[in-house]
């Protein structure tokens, strides 16, 4: 992507032109926050900051973008000249990726000349919203997985290839072991996994022939899809191969009564002495399934989690907003019913008791809380953490999360917002 400058809504630019014409060029602060958590979320995972910073670097108006804007017959040449020279030179304050956050807490705050930060609104919301949404969904599966392997199988059902790419990133941060998405593998260094499709099995005249062919090509990575016709018969054919000396790492179940079938498949393998064969389950899996199956003692070793996580089907959006909170040093806030905002740049002060999060205070900005100055005068303050480091940050955060917030059931965490004005 050569330029991200047109990843914006028209009214961002029309407002910016008016600001320039009326000398509204003072220092402004916009804050990105979630007004209210979805009914089935106890917390959110901050995610997407690195991607946002990459996109802001590319937020430049070149000849192609300016020709298009001129063709709309809306903008004056003086404003187009301003856009031609646009480069973000302000400050960005943010909660680092992998930290746990709650409602009414500033995820990202952008500071600079009013027109410069206004036109970033759509981009900031879009990037942070999606990855935070997906990481917050994915971590629910991690919390109930009891150490079992989780793999992102969602690319084919993602709303776009780009959504699939960044969902893979978010899910890895949230504890998934890897992804089926090869683009995410090369771009982010995420481990990649895959087995076979039902179509592969059906191409061969016999199921056993399909299994043999796959094992011959991938002798060290043989995971067999055994439910194309009859799951238990498929398991017995896997046993036949292993008795012939073929190494079978695992089998995958993608349909049927998983609770019953996983136990019976395990019995078949164990009875024949093949106790190391792993059972992978996929097919519409979500956190509720994982919790139910593991609570029932299902001998499942790994889960392919796809459609329901990558679309965040139970909470497909966050009530997220990017609002003006300060202009020329003066507080700015809305009083709209249900959409009130809080003035000034803000900091999150987290309080702990016995090593566990107890409550948060959101206060007028000061150093020393969750919010950090990431970009100063357009320049990155320090190197960003690696994806692995972000993942480790979240694992540490989860260790300090109270047990009731780890539940899939709704629970409350106190956030006290100080009303400075």
Structural overview:
- The protein is an alpha/beta fold and 421 residues long.
- The protein has two domains: 10-134 and 315-417, nicotinate phosphoribosyltransferase, CATH 3.20.140.10; 142-310, Alpha-Beta Barrel (TIM Barrel), CATH 3.20.20.
- It has 16 helices and 18 strands.
- The protein has helices at 10-21, 49-57, 63-71, 77-84, 114-118, 121-144, 161-173, 182-188, 198-203, 207-217, 231-243, 258-271, 287-295, 307-310, 387-399, 403-406; strands at 27-34, 44-45, 91-94, 100-101, 106-113, 149-152, 178-179, 223-225, 250-253, 278-281, 302-305, 320-327, 330-331, 346-353, 356-364, 372-376, 379-380, 415-417.
- A seven-stranded antiparallel β-sheet has the order 13-12-1-5-3-16-17. A six-stranded parallel β-sheet has the order 7-6-11-10-9-8. It has a three-stranded mixed β-sheet with strand order 14-15-18, with no helix packed on it.
- Strand 12 and strand 13 (330-331) form a beta hairpin.
- The protein is elongated, with a radius of gyration of 25 Å.
CATH superfamily of the largest domain: nicotinate phosphoribosyltransferase
Would you tell me which CATH topology of the largest domain applies? Answer: nicotinate phosphoribosyltransferase
Termini, distance in Å?
42 Å
Strand order of the largest sheet: 13-12-1-5-3-16-17
